[in-house]
Amino acid sequence: MLNSPDFNSGDQIPAERELSELLGISRVTVRKIITELIDEGVLERRGNQGTWLVDTAIERPLQPALGISKILELNGAVPSSQLIYFHISAASARIARLLHIEEGDPLVMLKRLRLADGHPFCIETSYLPQARVAGLSADMLEKEGSLYRLLAERYAIHDVYDEGTIRAAAMSEEEHQLLQAKPESPALVYRGVIYDSQHQPIEYLVSVNHPQRVAFRINGGLKEVNLHAGT
């Protein structure tokens, strides 16, 4: 649950009673899990204020946003992707706040495995307000290939930029399998909000990156990604 898009570093987690009801387990078990996560440095208690996800010490903004297809072209690699799912869902309170929409508003949610020269290097999950991308479908996305090119050509959304964070995080079993990563290896996880030229948020993005195949480089405020597809 803590690895879902609803939680980020520095967020407060629900109280034990609420977690017990939400997860369908006893408060004793919840308390044990929380204690273990505190011992691991994932959570911290703040006196009577509750329990919080440990805040990231350093956040490095990445600008501007570049579509994966464009990044791969710059790196001399051939891009491809596999659409894992595409569906409409209601915005949670946190996603709604990030995208400046109302809780419960419809979201287009899509998850893709991205490949460079046939090698998987990241899993991207995008959340877009349906009102901004009316009519967007899985068929359109698979035919076009590039989400940002589709946004520009069909929805006149240009000159996007992003604000986000990168941190190391454990991968799920599914993520290990999709990325063909070594067991128990961590991932570089980017979470960010993508804005249009009018400074309006158009996407919340979670990108789980292969630790050996992706390196993020900060260079004069511009985001560059080195891809080592052969490793």
TrEMBL record:
The keyword Coiled coil does not apply. Residues 1-56 form the HTH gntR-type domain. Signal peptide: none annotated. It comes from the Bacteria. Keywords: DNA-binding, Transcription, Transcription regulation. Gene3D superfamilies: Chorismate lyase-like, Winged helix-like DNA-binding domain superfamily/Winged helix DNA-binding domain. InterPro entries: Bact_HTH_transcr_reg (IPR050679), Chorismate_lyase_/UTRA_dom_sf (IPR028978), Tscrpt_reg_HTH_GntR (IPR000524), UTRA (IPR011663), WH-like_DNA-bd_sf (IPR036388), WH_DNA-bd_sf (IPR036390). PANTHER family: MANNOSYL-D-GLYCERATE TRANSPORT/METABOLISM SYSTEM REPRESSOR MNGR-RELATED, MANNOSYL-D-GLYCERATE TRANSPORT_METABOLISM SYSTEM REPRESSOR MNGR-RELATED. This is GntR family transcriptional regulator. It comes from Kosakonia oryzae.
